[in-house]
Fold ABC transporter permease.
Amino acid sequence: MDRPLSAVWAAAQGGVRRRKLQTVGIAVVVALSTATLVFGLGLLAASNSMFDDAFEEARGAHATVFFDSTKTTTGEVAATAQAAGVTAAAGPFQTAALTEALVSGEMPIRGGDLVVAGRAGSGGPMDRLTVTSGRWVRAPGEIVLRGSAFGPVRLGATLTSPGHPPLTIVGFATSITDGANGWVTPGQIGALRPTGLQMLYRFARAADSPQVRQSLSAATAGLPVLSYDSYLTAEQEFEREFNELIPFITVFGVFAMALSVFIIGNVVSGAVIAGFRHIGVMKALGFTPAQVSAVYIVMSVVPALLGCAAGLAAGHLLATGVAESMAAGFELPSVGGPSLLLDAVGGGGVIALVVLAALVPALRAGRLPAARAISAGTVSGRGRGRRVQRWLARTGLPAPVALGLSLPVGRPARTVLTFAGLCVGVTAVTMGFGLYRSVMENATADPEGHTSVSVRVDPAADGRARLSEQQVFALLRAQPGTAHVMSYDNQPVTIPGLPSGFQIETFTGDYGPFLGDNLVRGRWFTRPGELVPSEAFLRLHHLDVGDTVSLQLNGDQTTVRIVGSFAHQDPGRLMLDAASVSGPPRPIERRPISVIVTPGTDPAEYADRLNAAAASDGVVAGVTVPETGHVADEMSMFLLFLLIITTTAAFGVLNSVVLSARERSRDLGVLKAIGMSPRQVILMMVTSMAALGVLGAVIGVPLGVLTHHGVAVLAGELLGSGTPAAWIYVYSWPLLAVPAGAGLLIAVLGAWLPAGWAAATHTAGVLRSE
């Protein structure tokens, strides 16, 4: 038994060494495909397990509840820990809200109030904090902030708030539970004039938002709940970040695997055809059909194993790095991610696909009779494509072009595999261009994305009288080139019966053109009393267009009607007219003002003119540049995947031309002997693939458009943000011309190098055997 296996191994080794180009190609293709697959599977596994693992490790709270300490007592709040359905609880902790908190007297610490809790330690049975830098508070006058240091917000800096004693920042900590933004000692909290009590709960039933609300209502019945935070909000935000990538990675991974199957099948079938004589010799030496088939399967599996190992390592490291980065951004104490078992499953699946791709041509090699194999290996195949060649010769096309167009007909199976690879490549490029446009539409969907110039008013300058909002608007509208002007503000708001953490964005002025075209359903607000929240808000809280909600702001409550929703994954964003809420607006000095200039007006010149004309009024203008940093990250990933797929497709073309040149070496020798120049040989070989590239574009472009539509809709559903029509229908005819030319470009680039090799073939050496 050993000798037949040794013979198979020896023959396979010889084949691997002889066919270096195909061997390296299989290894590279499999490595790229495996890395893509393992990366996607690793992120998918992380999205399913990381948050849950970290939540259990840190003993996170299902709900963080804030009570009004002026309307209830500490004992009454503490008694809720024994309520039915509560499995664990911690607190109550006294809380205080620091308004207009500044660090080093200059930098606002956050947009709204800074909620500080009095807490003795960072550990405990619930909400175990992780001190990331510095230390925990030990004495009055110290504070630990949530998050990490940035700019002047650093260890040793002083935090001040009007009417409160200064606090020194001694540490930074992370928490998986929403709630407090800082912690002081229980003895310090009294000096901050606490007005609330914080309680942390874990419930027996907390699988979704309605269950959390029901469990919380049962535990706190009769007590004055100010607001609460649900762990589901943090979980949804975490999963949203991962889900942004999963659809794109999955589709690109499928494309890469499909290309691998096509190319590996093409390589092995080509090796069988080009190795007819070798097959005949093996059979003449006594190799059985099973051994011959095994030789060609082993010739594919050996480089595939090497490529798979490299791809597993690269994909695992890439997925782990991305998972760790995202976990740090969400303050998670532990990291899940790809496992060795998952790597083994992914690698095993890739190798299984390689074996299946190689099986059919390998079985064909085993069934080939020895006499036919030896004779077939000495001459070129005859008869195939002759009718097409004669028809093309009568069309009057140049001979190299006519011959090139007829070459694919001679090997229909190989042509189909090469053509399928080109179609996949064009489909991927088309989808990639569409995703780029969709991501850019997403990045510029907010009002900032439609703003040409941002304006602010200097609050203090030489004792000048402060301008009112109406005066600022009148000043801007009087400037040449002004099309639209509006101001907006962000304020925290509470909604009775729902978790806290909402931010209302109130607009005044001519705000319609700033709101964009990212509506998922309904319409934008046009008057006071109308609300447009994010689509994620509606889905999380099971609300719909036409429902009403009550907003509590500055001690007042107002009811507004939902008239639409915009695409955004943040469930805490609410937009409405500023007149919808009561109370005086913040001073114009603290509210950004946005301007859209008329078509043809340069924003930079407009800002310079405004600064010169309104300097005495304290008006300062600057050009608005939308924040697109995350777009660059996503597009880098898209570009990487597109390079993988197009390179793989180009290699498929290269392999096909190499095999065609080897099979037709005699024909090429005859053509050169009768006067065909090397340039004409190159033209003939490139034309054979260019024709497939054009046809691949005809089919691949529509498939790419459909795939983009499906991926865009799927991404919106996974994120819970919805997908506006403007983000789906992003293609125009000029945009489609680029991926349409990609098929031709891939085909030409893939064919050019082997065509040059064929053109350099010496005629005498080829015809010596005749």
About this structure: The radius of gyration is 34 Å. The chain has four domains: 1-61+231-376, 63-205, 379-444+629-770, 447-627.
